[in-house]
Amino acid sequence: MGRPALKQLKRSCQLYQLSWNAVAGGEVLQILKDPDLVDIYGPVLLEAVARNDVNSIKWLLDNFPKLERISDYCVLDEAARWGYLNLLDCFQGLLSTPGFVPDTSQTRRKKGLQTYSFGSPVNVASGDVYRNVLDDRHWGHSSWDSTDAMDDAAANGYLETVQWLHANRTEGCTTDAMDCAAANGHLDVVKWLQANRSEGITTKAMDGAAANGHLHVVKWLHEHSSAGCTVNAMEWAAEHGHLSVVKWLHANKSEGCTSTAVKESLQNSHLAVASWLKHTFPQLKPQCVKLSSDVKVSFPVVLFIQEHYAELPTQELFEKCNL
């Protein structure tokens, strides 16, 4: 492939996909030796780490351009988020080589909990939520939080990885570690962090666990933590149809909910939840309800609204159902 063609691929972002496909197929990435392509080493290395492709990682590190530098935390975090202890051991011994520089930047990326969508539960263990973050990593600018590795390993439930980082690294974690581990149902990780780390948790832990239907985690947090929750706990549980969680929160917590819980349960066709909320909180009335485009899904919701919330414009809802 000629240099003009490579430059065109680079401009169109197709070269990233081409290189990632080469990593996926275990091919030798000789294409990356072109000096015009030095800045794609980082993303391609991350892809190789995500796939635990030791051969490609070795080739990339052996051929790493002197002009390019990767923050050590970048590769450590990528290996940790997937729970690859073999790569963590490998990178731990390489961090003093010219290919890596320590993160000394004072500009830190505030990750918060954006990766783990409490409002919309996701299967973080599948890795799908990470496929869109590579472009946000600014190679050579050390933009990752040093605590990302343990935070992400905890969020994905890799207890052994969390323990390895605790024993071999000094960066530690943030409250995101326990918050996200709880939200994703990894109670063993939550318990270990509670016993061995001092960062603690926030209300996002119980809110997230409730949203994802992890009642056993909600109960444990209630008994072993004073962080508590917010109205989001019951509202998000209602939104995703976790009636047992909604009932438990009502019986054991005082935060309650707003009419948003009713609205979201209806919009997601969780009629059992909506019915319970109607009888338990008759004063909570949704102002509007957006229907699904699926008539079979929407029609029972319209009938429920017509029976229990006559003040809502049911005629308009019927028309939206094309009935």
From TrEMBL:
Coiled coil: none annotated. PANTHER family: ANKYRIN REPEAT-CONTAINING PROTEIN. This is Ankyrin repeat protein.
